[in-house]
Design a protein that fits this description.
Pfam families: DDE_3. This is Tc1-like transposase DDE domain-containing protein. GO terms for molecular function: nucleic acid binding. Helix 3 packs across helix 4. This protein folds into 2 domains: 53 residues, no CATH class; 70 residues. The protein is globular and about 40 Å long. With 125 residues, it is mostly helical. The chain contains 5 helices and 2 strands. The longest helix has 20 residues. Strands 1-2 form a two-stranded parallel ribbon.
């Protein structure tokens, strides 16, 4: 909870500057602890609970359907001998992603949601 309370909430409140925002969380086992779900439900202006989120839905998570592949291509082009080397490479790769790319990924999200609805929660490309 400390990570969410000390980092997520101040960051989101600063970023959205008093405007409403929604926290979307997938159902990965590490993310769906009852305590975490309760905290997010109470603290976030809008929260999509684990019960509302389709199971096994990487197609609806921008990190999964796009950003991780960009990071992997950049950061893992060569093998790393240490975890620290990999971490540095991932941070560098993140910093090199153009803002325009992230905006395009976010702008594509409504289309992906519509495709999910049309596929009735099933697989879609």
């Amino acid at each position: 909870m400390a990570m969410l309370r000390e980092h997520l909430l101040p960051w989101a409140n600063d970023l959205f500057d008093g405007e409403e925002w929604c926290f979307q969380q997938d159902t990965a086992p590490a993310h769906k602890a009852n305590e975490t779900q309760e905290f997010l439900f109470e603290e976030c202006p809008d929260f999509i609970t684990k019960a509302e989120w389709p199971p096994y839905s990487p197609d609806l998570n921008p990190m999964d359907y796009s950003v991780w592949s960009i990071l992997e291509a950049k950061a893992c082009a060569k093998p790393h001998k240490t975890i620290e080397s990999l971490k540095r490479s991932l941070l560098k790769a993140w910093d090199e992603i153009p803002l325009e790319t992230l905006v395009k990924i976010a702008d594509n999200f409504p289309k992906r949601l519509q495709a999910c609805v049309e596929a009735e929660g099933g697989y879609f490309e």
